[in-house]
Fold:
Amino acid sequence: MMPKTNLRRATAFALSAACLCLATAASAQKITFLLPSAAVLPAFAPFMLAQHKGYYKAEGLEVEFETGKGGADVAKQVGAGNATMGVAIGDSVPIVRSNGVPIKAVALLGGRSLMQLVSREDRNINSPKDLKDKTVSVMAFQDMSYYALLATLASANLNKNSLQAQAVGPVNVWQLLVRGDVDAMVGVPEWGMSAEAAGAKLKWTSTNAYYPGMAQVIIASDTTIKTQPQMVQKFVNATLKGLKDLMDDPQKAGAAYIEAVPAHKGKEDFIMKTLRYYATTVYPGQAKLGAVDAGRLDELQTFFVAQGLIPKKLPADEVFTNQFVPR
Structure:
């Protein structure tokens, strides 16, 4: 039997610990973060890894991830205040901002383009000029995969009339490539990896080689940036830790990512290959991790104006801010 004195001390300690836990939980700031598609996609690995490793919790945040209806929807919902923050492809921010959506990029998750040009080996596509008269799949005509295709064509003095583009959704975009119904696709790395896993023999080129496209960005509304800068800072800090883990050791971070997303168990080879591609092809190239390059953005907007995607170039400080990038 425990002596009464010790029992009282143990009880008091347990109550104190319980109160501390409750106080910590109560003090955590709840935020809703909107993703453009399913959270299981490897593109969102930095976020899932930061959540799994407790980086958000350590910053005093309780993050709830929700799925929107594509990148444009994420931007609109964040701009309207229906979600605290979200993620989008960096290329899309000048476009949605030009359409009156009050958002900015607050951190860039990689120094190179997210979009990839992936073609079948048997179609002899070695550069953008070889896309002439070919058939290329994209997710949608209002999606960055299509705009990236236009930019890639422009680098070879071609345009949308130089080939047949097919907008076929996030699954058919790569399945048509496997079947040989299209010659190439433009999209995110996991789509190409899915085609390879299904047996297609492919050639890969980052569209970064043809125009200054961007990786994913964390977006926040003007209002959130102004009224809750500390919260934005904390979220950026934690997410960049997850990103750095993936860059420093894709194998180790990948194992933790699979723990975080059990749906990937049994698909370890696919996930590891995809994350290694991100770590070597999409994430590198920033002078400072998380920072947007104003010069690159200016080049991108010049192209968008030429293509009629935006009426004029916007001032850089209307499109992004690097104030939250750790120094």
The longest strand covers residues 29-35. The two ends are 57 Å apart (CA to CA). The beta strands are 29-35, 61-67, 85-89, 103-108, 116-120, 135-138, 164-167, 184-187, 202-206, 216-221. The chain has two domains: 27-112+214-319, 116-209.
